[in-house]
Specification:
This protein has about 120 residues and is mainly alpha-helical. The protein is built from six helices and no strands. The protein has one domain. Helix 1 runs antiparallel to helix 3 and helix 1 packs across helix 5.
């Protein structure tokens, strides 16, 4: 069960990383009409990487759900809400507000409380 908890947490990391790739890909889309946008999308390595990462994440997640109760596994995905602002700060140079930091702290507390109840 411990390896499944680790995989569930890694799913959150993977989801957050996918969001970062989607953002990087979206910033590089070019085209003025739908056909050009689709062509730009298909040859965008960031977007293709994000889709591949999400597809892989789904496979891992299905394994996690096979091993863990949903009530234990799913709260760990909330960690992606903490990881995204951290990645955005360091990789995209975005600002992280005080409210985001407070909210992230509450999410961490919520995940910890949820898992203390299940132990």
């Amino acid at each position: 069960m411990n390896h499944a908890l680790i995989l569930a947490a890694l799913t959150a990391v993977s989801m957050a990383s996918g969001q970062l790739l989607f953002k990087l890909g979206a910033q590089r889309l070019q085209g003025e009409n739908l056909g050009q946008l689709i062509g730009s999308f298909l040859f965008n390595p960031y977007l293709m990487g994000a889709i591949f990462l999400y597809a892989t994440t789904v496979l891992v997640w299905i394994y996690v759900l096979r091993v863990l109760p949903l009530s234990i596994a799913y709260p760990l995905t909330a960690l992606s809400y903490i990881i995204v602002p951290i990645l955005s700060l360091f990789i995209l140079g975005e600002k992280v507000s005080t409210n985001t930091i407070i909210g992230s702290t509450l999410i961490i507390a919520g995940v910890m409380i949820t898992h203390m109840q299940k132990a």
